[in-house]
Amino acid sequence: MTVEKEKAEMALERLDKILSGTGRWSRREVKELVKAGRVTVDGVVAARPEDKLDRAAAALAVDGEPVDGEKFTYLMLHKPGGVLSATEDPRQPTVLDLLPPHLRRLGLFPVGRLDKDTEGLLLLTNDGPLGHRLLSPKKHVDKVYFVRVAGTLDGADSAAFRAGMTLEDGLHCLPAELEVLEEPDTGLVTLREGKYHQVKRMLAARGKPVTYLKRLSMGPLALDPDLAPGAWRPLTREEREVLGKLG
Ligand code: URA
Q: Is 115 part of the annotated catalytic residue set?
């Protein structure tokens, strides 16, 4: 076999793997879609879910709607309280346990950790370089959290956040924002970094321990208000594109 032919064959993957890897359908659903003649490859109705194709070259569509045969998978999860931001744990449930089995096998990992009791936006992907870019302090990707504290937030807390705090344990925090909301035990915190328990530690240092924490956004990616805690969905093409532009 020529090197070119070998390379071309290596680029081939099963149709059901490509479609289920988008997170939109399970393998069983893909099988049904193909059986019903709803999947086309380069305009031709696909015959079998196990047919092989080059995802970079083929034009895939379901019900006439183009589907990106992307190499990586990107899911938005509304992390509920009580699960770990980890890929596996011998004793406790992790965010991956919230996914169906075919998506647990793709090597997905959470981009950045939320504490076990923290809720909200968590991106799951197997795109390592994107994960690094989103977490790199150099990229200054803002993370916005809704927070509730025991006590009342005020302008002095916001000023301390803005100035950049150094905590008693020596942790130096970059300038951050704290907007006090109408209910003064609640606020919006914007961080440009993600140190261990950072929001909780900053507010504990102000004498106002956090009682509830939820991440609302990460850079250009905002938690979908239609996602209930524990629910997930694939990122839309627009969401993937803005993340891709983070450079
Ligand atoms: N800050 C915290 O204290 N906890 C989180 O989960 C995220 C940010």
A: yes
More confident site: 24 or 121: 121
The token pair that represents 157 in the structure block? 């807390």
Residue of 197, 210, 223 to test ligand 1 pocket, by largest number of atoms within 8 Å of CB? 197
Q: Ligand 1, from 178, 190, 200: best to mutate by most atoms within 8 Å of Cβ? A: 200
Q: What pLDDT is attached to residue 1?
A: 64
Which one of the listed residues 51, 54, 115, 224 is annotated catalytic? 115
The residue type of 154 is D
Q: Helix and strand tally (H, E) in the chain? A: 8, 15
